[in-house]
Amino acid sequence: MFDFLKPKPKTAIPTFAPLGIDIHCHLLPGVDDGSKSNEESVACMKVMRDAGFEGIVCTPHYQYPRFPNEEPDILRRFDNLKLDLASINAPGIPQLKGVAGEYRVDSGFARRIQQNQFLLVGGNYLLTEFSLHQQVIGLDQVMFDLQMKNYEVILAHPERYPYYSSSSSKLQHLKDMGVYFQVNILSLIGFYGEGPKHKAFEMIEKGWVEFLGTDMHNTLYAQALIDATHDRKVIKLMEKHTFLNSQVQNQQPLKTNKI
Asked: How far is residue 180's CA from residue 233's CA, in Å, rounded to a whole number?
């Protein structure tokens, strides 16, 4: 009774259609702290499609010892996911553009560099992350080693590292070294707190951010993504700024000048 008085649940609107492709999400089931099932992945993907994404790249964590994933197993699981989605005929989801990784710069990272043991977002673009708790020791050498191997480095969610401010000289140094930045969309609505939100907007306004990503993990994140599509500040940001998501996955040269 009186159901017409209840507010209708919000659905996503295609605010992020200009991005085309999400280059950072955790929707390969059962491999990290992301989706736990095909059903959960499909539910998240449908929201992402409504939010404007035409394609996604799955980027599971590679973080020893918490997520000791290895590339052959991840590739096998990704192929299984594609087959499973085809068999259940899940309409209204973005295309699975590929599988890469979000690689933690940790004690095992040097071995991966030496062996070229990476799954890439597209071309030579490597998605990396740092610890949320402590700074990387010897970071300059790591970045130099990657560049000597011709990798183009993307740093995931720089706004979330509490030891960097939005005006950090260390972030400026990374930009000077040619590192690309990817901000999480949900940071823009305070999903991770007001600090990351403030830093995310500041870095975008500085021109430091080439990519946005959902960092989608589960249906809680999907609900927050719905809210982000309706957020006025986010909508204005998308109207004002251009990001390079689709260029990377299509393996096109980036139309930007590194700082």
From this structure: 23
Q: Is residue 254 in some structural domain?
A: no
| Nearest Cα to Cα of residue 186 among 159, 149, 218, 224 | 224
The CA dihedral of 144, 148, 152, 153, to the nearest 10 degrees, is -30
Asked if the model's pLDDT at residue 66 lies above 60, the reply is: yes
Structure tokens at 52: 């404007």
Residue 217 covered by a domain: yes
pTM, two decimals, is 0.93
The CATH number given to whatever domain includes residue 57 is 3.20.20.140
What are phi and psi for residue 187, nearest 5 degrees?
Answer: -60, -30
Query: pLDDT tens for residues 36-48?
Result: 999 999 999 999 9
- Which domain, by its residues, includes 79? 16-249
Structural domain contains residue 8: no
